[in-house]
Design goal:
It is a single chain. With 174 residues, the chain is of the alpha+beta class. It contains four helices and five strands, in the order αααβββββα. It is globular, with a radius of gyration of 20 Å. About 10% of the residues have low confidence.
């Protein structure tokens, strides 16, 4: 009887270890949706390793209001100047181009943080991005911070946008 209880306890413990947090599930779902959108846009003319034309607006649905405001400000500055402002890459894929067939690895380095490692593909080395995700009791989750190269996206991008405003936007207003 003790052996059966130990086996059952071991099975329960191992299934608990492999259970994914809501935060990991949320981020995985975001990448799966983006990859499926990219795969759906494949035509015979596409380079089979790079997809540029996938609409990234769905990404905004995953962000909290603070990060959405940063994206809106970036878009406003780009429209005002006709030039690239501060967000000059696809944050999800950490580059200009995305490959929906890249190997993705998801880890939870600390509670509420999900690190995504994007495997190397042609012309791109392995890279990673970490998301801080807050989930409500009702299951609604939002990304509250993004860490690129260990630095907080909101802080770095806000500073860039402040500098961009002083150096570029004021020139266009004068």
């Amino acid at each position: 009887m003790k052996k059966i209880l130990l086996i059952l306890l071991g099975l329960c413990a191992s299934s608990y270890v492999f259970a994914e947090s809501p935060q990991v599930q949320y981020i995985k779902g975001m990448y799966e949706l983006n990859a499926s959108l990219a795969k759906g846009s494949i035509t015979e003319d596409n380079d089979l390793n790079i997809y540029n034309d996938v609409d990234q607006s769905f990404f905004l649905d995953y962000l909290d209001s603070n990060i959405k405001k940063i994206y809106a400000r970036n878009d406003e500055y780009q429209e005002a100047t006709g030039d690239m402002a501060c967000i000059d890459h696809n944050v999800l894929w950490q580059g200009q181009d995305l490959n929906p067939f890249a190997k993705l690895t998801f880890a939870e380095p600390s509670a509420g943080r999900v690190k995504v490692t994007i495997g190397a593909t042609r012309d791109l080395e392995e890279r990673s991005v970490t998301y801080q995700v807050k989930c409500q009791k009702d299951g609604d989750c939002k990304i509250t911070e993004i860490f690129e190269y260990g630095k907080p996206f909101t802080k770095v991008t806000s500073k860039c946008l402040d500098d961009f405003y002083r150096t570029e936007i004021k020139k266009h207003k004068d």
